[in-house]
Amino acid sequence: MTFPKLRSAPHQGAFFCALLDTCLIAALVLIPMLNNAFAASPLDTYLDEAMANNPALAQAGFEVEAERQRLENLRARFYPSLALQARASVAEGGRTIDFPAGDLLNPVYAPLNAQAVANGQPAQFPTVQNQSIPLLRPTEQDTRLIVRGPIYEPVLDRQLQAQTQAVGAQEAAQLQVKEELIRDLNTAYWQYAQAKARISILEASLRTLKENERINTVLYKAGETTLDAPKRAEAETLEIQVALREAQTQALLAKEYFNLLRYAPNNSAVELPQEELTPDSIQATLDELSPKTQGNTAAPALTRLERSLAAQRAQLEASRASYKPTLGYSIEGGYQGRDYSTGPNTGFASASVVLNWTLADAGIRSSEVARSQAQVQALEARTRQVNRQLQLAKLQARENLLVSLDSIQARMAQRAASEESLRINERKRDSGETTQIEFLSAEQSATRARLGLVAAVYQARIDHAIWQYNNRNIPEPSPQEGAQP
Question: Cα separation of 442 and 419, whole Å?
């Protein structure tokens, strides 16, 4: 039997050292790649910041909490309540009850006392005074514990159902505020990026036109061209300067609106992605923004209306339940007397079952039922209208996005053609083979094509954000629901 030859110790050490070096190099290469892959984009960071700081979203959260606390308040009314009631009073005067005890007893006691004295005995009966008993005690206290609770409360049951739906409606409103904030943040961010890209293009065009203006001025002074050439070049330069000023204003307003949405200080810097509008990157953008999926979540605006409608229907049932009687119980126990001393005959206890049934109220309850019914019908009509509006908004957002994506491809072709024409005219201008009008026309066409491509790319991103907001699962209303009442 033969055995494989083992490496010597020095060779084994060199092998493991080389293997370790290879692993370290691979780690150093892969770690930055992984960090770049999982790093959040600037927009994602700004979205997280807005979710934490935006006052409108915070207000929506507080409103949801307020509705939840109202729901807890209604639930607590099903349980008994315990109350302490104490009263101490001092009185003087008032009505009295007069009892002629002396007039009744003294005529009887007097002969008896006279007879006893005649027999040599002391008087046996006292002289009695007439009595006057006040109805109000000079001092009085009443201290008791009262336990009350419902036994049958039909209105409270319906109010609890209505408030449960109201909480759901407010939660849908909070979600709607959140999604509108995301849409507006995306829109403002890409509007700012669009304006900054326009500024870069216009600045480059301005440098070219200033150089062209300088060359034409030199040629005019040398007598090789007429005065209209430098004047035309100056006019084109001024036009680009005005467009640049407008782009700077748009960038400033878009940035400040974006800072407002994320509740950042004024003039806060906004980091933009480093994008180059190359054919490969534009193709990747087209694939990314293509509307390939259909939304499967409900629209928060429609959910809010549906929950509000369910709450109003429950409130209608509560109004109808007000015709029914209510039944409750009350248990009381405590002490009462002239002072706070305890003893026999000072404590008391009582238990009651209370029935309350309103038999007539001059139409108050009927008008409340009619009002609730009208509110239900109004919400039903509003729900139908919003459903159709959301369907139209969804269709419009998709079509606008598709048009923007088609516009990008057209703008790419225009930019390629105009830049090639500009390069040819620049060479001809330098060699004196073209006119000033031809060069300025080529420069204008190239600038317009670049601006058009930038506008198309960022408009597509804006339309994509709007499409994401409107891409919802919106059910078709039935003919009965869509009919006019």
Answer: 8
For the segment 330-376, what is each residue's pLDDT rounded down to a tens digit? 999 998 888 887 777 778 899 999 999 999 999 999 999 999 999 99
**Element at 337 (helix H, strand E):** strand 326-337
Amino acid at 369: V
The residues spanned by each domain of the chain are: 52-81+154-320+362-482
Q: What is the pLDDT of residue 40?
A: 62
Number of Cβ within 10 Å of residue 31's Cβ equals: 10
- Inform me whether the pLDDT recorded for 183 exceeds 50: yes
pLDDT of residue 9: 43
Nearest in space to 414 (alpha carbons), one of 451, 439, 440, 441: 451
- Residue linked to tokens 């209608």: 316
CB 186 within 8 A of CB 177: no
Q: Please identify which residue in the block is written with the tokens 């929506």.
A: 60
CB 277 within 8 A of CB 411: no
* Average pLDDT, rounded, for the chain: 85
At 432, list the tokens.
Answer: 């004196």
- Amino acid symbol at 102: G
Q: What is the DSSP string of 149-173?
A: EEEE-HHHHHHHHHHHHHHHHHHHH
pLDDT, tens digit (0-9, with 9 covering 90-100), for 433-449: 776 677 777 887 888 88
Structure-block tokens of residue 338: 């002239």
Cα separation, 181 vs 166, in Å, equals 23
Report how far apart, in Å, the C-alpha atoms of 126 and of each of 112, 113, 116, 118, 131 are: 11, 9, 13, 17, 15
CB-based contacts of 144, cutoff 8 Å, min separation 6: 84, 85, 86, 332, 333, 334, 335, 336, 348
pLDDT in tens, 269-301: 999 987 778 888 888 888 888 988 888 889 999
pLDDT at site 210: 85
3-state secondary structure of 327: strand
Q: Which CATH architecture has domain 52-81+154-320+362-482?
A: Up-down Bundle (1.20)
DSSP-derived 3-state class of residue 85:
strand
Give Cβ neighbours of residue 397 (< 8 Å, ≥ 6 apart): 463, 466, 467, 469, 470, 471
pLDDT at 478: 59
Q: Cβ contacts of residue 273 below 8 Å, gap of 6+?
A: 41, 42, 43, 193
Identity at 377, one-letter amino acid code:
Q
